[in-house]
Amino acid sequence: MTLARHVISSVTTTEIRYEYLRTIGRNAFLGSHGNGGSSTVYVVETDRGATGWGLPLYDADPGVLLGRSLAELIDPDRGVIDPAAEFLDYPLHDLAARILDVPVYALLDKSRIRAGSPRVRCYTGGIYFDDLDGGMDAIRANLAQDHAFGFRDFKLKIGRGHRWMDTRAGLQRDIEVTRLVRELYPDAGILVDGNDGFTLNGLFEYLDGVADCGLYWIEEPFAERRPDLEALHEHLQTLPTRPKVADGEYDPSVDHVLELAREGLVDVALMDVTGHGLTAWRRTMPLLKAEASPHAWGHPLKTLYAAHLAAGLGNTPIIEGVPGPNYYTLDDGHVVLPEEPGFGLTLPH
Question: Quick one: 320 and 250 in the same domain?
């Protein structure tokens, strides 16, 4: 059945709760991230009884969409085509894919329709500064909990010396935690995230202190300043293994990130999965001269979105996992995507 035969009959909202595996602590800038919360999702229905739902990119008045043909709002080959419907990017992708009886990842890549369930490599994004309250045993416990949940790769928050510890002591703790993870999980990918909390010299000292740990990437060590990224690029050539540079999460200028990628200064673009949006990622990915890994922290549903994006658009070797149950299936370090239509998830009650 074509999308043109469906007319939007209602757009409603509901709150869905989510929980993390534990209370998530501090990072370089912010205090405790809590143990979960709730988010507003939009539910879109058509006059033929089809329903799609999901997180919005932002909140807006859906009234202008009522009575509109679905084909006027979204093109399966491009995404949302009416600016008035942009905020419903994910609900409309879910709805269109359900009507067309394909998963969203297959909507993005037609070759996926009969290719079986994709598996997308996924790291835990939940290793924060819990050592500041519970010592190194807290880090060990968090790593073990996330490993038991199914993660095999770990992203560590670093930058303790920016706000919470003396600069020197914080730097040494960052190094100590990184080395502990490599010791406990010798085969794991280790990613580190500074939340823009480093000076250039401080970052160099950290990198030299963990040079034998084989970091997978360094995320947002400082704001996207070209001279600093150029200096970092030079320093990385001196390390025994070169980690990737990941940037573009926090309030990005997308054009600037794309230019830095063209210059080889950013290896992984991080524009947020809902901040940037799926339709925007469909436009951006062909222009990107680097890898992608859309930032997904917050609601665990964002990890599912990132996995569909990765499976459908490619060029995304690993995604961020929010350690919380009920929104995606994790197996041996990979999100296993369902073959059901849309995002393959029933609206929680």
Answer: yes
